[in-house]
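Database export, one record per block. Field names are fixed; values are copied verbatim from the stored entry.
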Amino acid sequence: MDSQKESNQKWKYDAFLSFRGEDTRNNFVSHLYKRLEERGFNVFKDDEKLERGRPISAELLNAIEESRIAIIVFSENYASSKWCLEELTKIMDCVEKKGQEAIPIFHDVDPSDLRRQSNSVAVALAKHEVDLKGSDLGKVQRWKDALCKAANIAGWDVGKAANR
């Protein structure tokens, strides 16, 4: 990462956790969050750090921008969440424009499924295209691009995907 960009940036959080709650909130993510906090990292996790009374979307987008690192926990159903895909798009934008670092974790999903948009990722994206028919189909292409960029970053495979 460009050290000049990093030194000029004021980060509110050390890390932002992006994850599909139904898949990983009460298992992998809760353990990861606890370990990071125990080691002194200031981590934004949506159910821990949200300010009550503020719109969730604005709060999450601000937290992404204010985080030095984004940890993206890709799971089998990550791409089924429009909000996860919006977070991912914002994260990849911050990586490109603000010098933020992104660390992907592939939890029970193969990184190549994200790159190629195959298997559960393909099903989710096809559903989003149907849901957005007649509105912003460019959004789906931005999501596809963000998935591909993130999957091309060296990360960690955990769960079933790591045992292949």
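Remark 1: The helical segments are 3-8, 21-38, 46-49, 56-65, 82-98, 111-116, 120-131, 138-151.
Remark 2: Residues 1-7 have pLDDT under 50 and may be disordered.
End of record.
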